């Protein structure tokens, strides 16, 4: 009946399997917020479903899981189903800052299905910004959407961040802006000698 508390210390959340256990945001609350504050923490989430999470705006809240600056998350065999965010990262968002540290996530053998970013930031399933580091392996993205008029990256949207993508399937993802599957933007300019 309320949002879960912020995860501020190391924790491992291990379910019996994505078809056996679901954490449901009931389309009212974000599900997991990973924020170690001034310190950095590592969080592992595996073998469960995160569904119907709702990330409020204007920025910095994903529907299912948000990883804050300086923190690291590992997701293994997690199903991200029908999560929404007012701005970006319908299911997962990595928020970094130049002075606050790098947010990083490793996503392995997961499924992102039917997630939606409602705002212009985009990233229907995942959004990473400002130096974040995202690694995706053996993961499938189906029917995710960046639905705003200028929303980019139906499955994945990254800005000024690192993305490693290995053995992934992207199908049926949509964006009303650019990048039906993946959108990458760099606003960093290199000086010329």
Summarize the structure.
With 193 residues, this protein is an all-beta fold. The protein has strands spanning 11-14, 22-24, 32-34, 42-51, 54-55, 65-67, 72-81, 84-85, 92-95, 104-108, 111-113, 116-117, 126-129, 133-137, 140-142, 145-146, 156-159, 162-166, 169-171, 174-175, 182-185.
What do you see in this structure?
The protein is built from no helices and 21 strands. It has strands at residues 11-14, 22-24, 32-34, 42-51, 54-55, 65-67, 72-81, 84-85, 92-95, 104-108, 111-113, 116-117, 126-129, 133-137, 140-142, 145-146, 156-159, 162-166, 169-171, 174-175, 182-185. Strands 1, 2, 4, 7, 10, 11, 14, 15, 18 and 19 form a ten-stranded parallel sheet that branches. It is globular and about 35 Å long. The model has no long low-confidence stretch (mean pLDDT 93).
Proportion of residues in helical segments: under 10%
- Number of contiguous helices: 0
The averaged pLDDT comes out at: 93
Strand segment tally: 21
The gross shape turns out to be globular
- Distance from first to last alpha carbon: 58 Å
Structural class: mainly beta
Strand content: 35-45%
The oligomerization state is single chain
Order of helices and strands: EEEEEEEEEEEEEEEEEEEEE
Overall radius of gyration = 15 Å
Sheet of most strands: 10 strands, parallel
Write the layout of secondary structure elements.
Layout: E1 11-14, E2 22-24, E3 32-34, E4 42-51, E5 54-55, E6 65-67, E7 72-81, E8 84-85, E9 92-95, E10 104-108, E11 111-113, E12 116-117, E13 126-129, E14 133-137, E15 140-142, E16 145-146, E17 156-159, E18 162-166, E19 169-171, E20 174-175, E21 182-185
Parallel strand pairs: 1-4, 2-4, 3-6, 4-7, 5-8, 6-9, 7-10, 7-11, 8-12, 9-13, 10-14, 11-15, 12-16, 13-17, 14-18, 15-19, 16-20, 17-21
């Amino acid at each position: 009946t309320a949002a879960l508390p912020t995860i501020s210390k190391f924790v491992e959340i291990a379910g019996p399997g994505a078809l056996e256990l679901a954490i449901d945001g009931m389309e009212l609350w974000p599900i997991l917020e990973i924020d170690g504050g001034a310190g950095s923490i590592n969080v592992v989430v595996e073998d469960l479903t995160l569904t119907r999470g709702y990330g409020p705006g204007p920025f910095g809240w994903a529907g299912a899981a948000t990883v804050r600056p300086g923190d690291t998350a590992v997701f293994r065999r997690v199903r991200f189903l029908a999560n929404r965010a007012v701005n970006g990262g319908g299911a997962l968002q990595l928020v970094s800052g130049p002075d606050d540290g790098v947010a990083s996530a490793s996503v392995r053998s997961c499924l992102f299905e039917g997630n939606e970013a409602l705002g212009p930031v985009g990233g229907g399933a995942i959004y990473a910004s400002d130096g974040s580091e995202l690694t995706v392996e053996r993961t499938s993205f189906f029917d995710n959407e960046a639905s705003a008029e200028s929303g980019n990256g139906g499955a994945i949207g990254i800005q000024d961040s690192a993305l490693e993508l290995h053995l992934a399937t992207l199908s049926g993802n949509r964006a009303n802006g650019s990048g039906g599957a993946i959108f990458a933007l760099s606003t960093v300019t290199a000086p010329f000698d």
